Amino acid sequence: MLEVQGITQRFGGVTALEDVSFRVSEGAITGIIGPNGAGKTTLFNIVTGIYIPTSGMVHLQGKNVTRFAPERLASLGMVRTFQNIELFSKMTVLENVMVGLHTKGKSGIIASSLRLPWQMAEERRLRERALHWLEFTGISDLADTEAGNLPFGKGRLLETARAMALEPKVILMDEPAAGLNSRETLDLARLIHKIRESGVTVALVEHDMELVMDICDSIVVLNLGRKLAEGTPREIQENPEVISAYLGEG
Ligand SMILES: Nc1ncnc2c1ncn2[C@@H]1O[C@H](COP(=O)(O)OP(=O)(O)OP(=O)(O)O)[C@@H](O)[C@H]1O
């Protein structure tokens, strides 16, 4: 589904990634882990079109998407969530999801404010779609709350709802558990399973090792810009090189 081949990324004299290759299989949950500075964020930014790599390629469903911008990747079915949640704080929870849907609908947000009958019908349709994704992520009771007033954990669910509303084939999540308490992390694990069950492939960069080991089918370990290991959670946990990379960290 998603294939990363021989990615190298240099920033001036710093080599953030060196010849990294791996695949994200369709229908799987893939985790990307590694000690601080391993290159996870850089890799994520390359895959999601924020950086163009120094060399190497990214293929999405067989198509070379290496130089594609994030919007173009989204239209091909690849969406992402951010480590620092990016919401419209003055809009309601429902409106935050609807804004994303407007780009998919017939009328733009300005045209729809004219409130012609067909536009109102479309508005209703978008509202229903948006509500569906709030229900999916378990925050429909907060539909009318201003996004800026949401507790952090709910904000993360809203961001996930907004990404899912684009009906992606693959969702990339940047440290989804960062800042969540243990209860919220459990809910997140359930939600990620639910996303996968709905037929969407999931890839995530994550520091929470318990979560990664619990939910991932496959794990890619980066260390000092190189791929150190790739395998099932069990294989990774038993890999001596992985153990020493993590022990060496502190
Ligand atoms: N824009 C940049 N300019 C220069 N160096 C960078 C840039 N971005 C990342 N680096 C360097 O690349 C290396 C990998 O950084 P990256 O942020 O990708 O690691 P990470 O695994 O995401 O780390 P963390 O877990 O701490 O977020 C580091 O040595 C970092 O200093």
TrEMBL record:
The keyword Transport applies. SMART domains: AAA. InterPro entries: AAA+_ATPase, ABC_AA/LPS_Transport, ABC_transporter-like_ATP-bd, BCA_ABC_TP_C, P-loop_NTPase. SUPFAM superfamilies: P-loop containing nucleoside triphosphate hydrolases. It holds the Pfam family BCA_ABC_TP_C. It comes from the Bacteria. The keyword Nucleotide-binding applies. GO terms for molecular function: ATP binding. Gene3D superfamilies: P-loop containing nucleotide triphosphate hydrolases. Keywords: ATP-binding, Nucleotide-binding, Transport. Residues 2-249 form the ABC transporter domain. PANTHER family: AMINO ACID ABC TRANSPORTER ATP-BINDING PROTEIN, CONSERVED COMPONENT OF ABC TRANSPORTER FOR NATURAL AMINO ACIDS-RELATED. This is ABC transporter ATP-binding protein.
